[in-house]
Write a structure and sequence with these properties.
39% helix, 16 helices, Aspartate Aminotransferase, domain 2, binds 4'-deoxy-4'-aminopyridoxal-5'-phosphate, 4-stranded mixed β-sheet, 15 strands, 13% strand, 472 residues, binds glutamine, Aspartate Aminotransferase, domain 1, 7-stranded mixed β-sheet
Length: 472
Amino acid sequence: MFEMLRVLTKPAIRRRSHNFFVNSASVIASVDLRPSRSFSSHQGGNMDPKKFALPARYQGQEKSVWVEYIQLALETKPLNLGQGFPDYAPPAYVTQALSDVATGDNVLLNQYTRGFGHPRLVAALSRLYSQLVRRPIDSQTEILVTSGAYEALFSTIQGHVGPGDEVVIIEPYFDCYEPMVLTAGGKPIFVPLRPKKTESGVKSTSSADWVLDPDELSSAFNDRTKAIILNTPHNPVGKVFSKKELTLIADLCLRWDALCISDEVYEWLVYPPNEHIRIATLPGMWERTITIGSAGKTFSVTGWKLGWAYGPASLMTNLQLVHQNCVYTCPTPIQEAVARGFELELGRLDSPECFFKSLPAELEAKRDLMANFLADVGMVPTIPQGGYFMIADWSPLASKVPLNQEKDKWKDYRFTKWMSRNLKLQGIPPSAFYCADHKPLGEDFVRYCFIKKDENLHEAAKILKKWKGSSL
Ligand code: PMP
Ligand code: GLN
């Protein structure tokens, strides 16, 4: 078929056919398909590699830690504590809802739905977030349902950032922020969270010790600043930004008339006494904040790839435009099932049975289990206040790892690859979450995910304990 289309569109071939304008069937019958010596090399099937090189706007973005480490896991078959997803079943009511929707009487639920969000889902999101941000959120104009939080970030950045715009990104950062800003023509301005100095010999630290220098943050803002990307609870550090820290960010947004893109996909995964504060609730911030969420994190169904963004209609129209011309509409059965999930939880938000309360309670025990076994082996874990990742400083163990066996530039890549191949335990190298100039800041760390079955966390502990006892 492809060959036929090519034949019909190549002028050189047309000239060889006397019957071209009769009808397409006879054209095909009469064309000599053998390669001709008189064609240039492109017409012989080879495409000019220069002409088909990666467009400039994507150059420099070839490396992805996810692509690389998922491939590595396929090859080394480790106990995978790398990519963030639960290795156990999501709540039965959401998976049951999906099954009911797909096979139920309302067959139209298997067809396209409203482009900016399925009516039942945007109604549920509006009920939920109107309570949480303490203002009415219009389900039709102030919410956009997206293909995962990834697409919410993409539509926000594409819809609001243009050439010359500067976007402040707090490091470490979820790795797609940087390429998304660059592709939109923007300029990322990086400001790192820095761990407070700790005394030697400490067994663990807290994500609360990773802080922004207020002067450094302030000096990143100017007239060209279009936006700041905030992520709380934070991936990979697990930091839950305090009211004071959020107020500093909010004040800068107000002073420099900047947008706040608030990635809150781990909004329900917060460990006491910490509390998740939505920056959109701070004075003057609703008008300049787009908040992003994910059904994948909310209901432990990362493979469903459903997310959303909410904010004032005046800002949301730009996202809707990006979305309508690339995704247009997200899967109806998934949206319906997530809507039913929210409806159930909306009826028990204050009860301990609410999944948004029971999941963090379950995860807190897993977090503590992981922190203990990492400290036991000699790493220094940063205890996260939220999310389901833990970073740990592995440098006290550097002498036990033959780092020169791996070729990568950054030590954390070499450490994690060596571990994956030799100990069959996989983590993620945090330097992936820093810009090129700041990668050394992440090199002494590894990120592990703890939303895993207890037996797998115990297995990881066993692997590390055995390694500690060995002479490797
Ligand atoms: N933001 C952060 C901070 C994340 O960790 C992730 C990972 N899933 C995403 C956004 C993307 O979420 P989704 O899978 O819903 O696209
Ligand atoms: N957010 C998840 C993580 O940080 C998954 C990322 C991904 O698959 N791209 O591990």
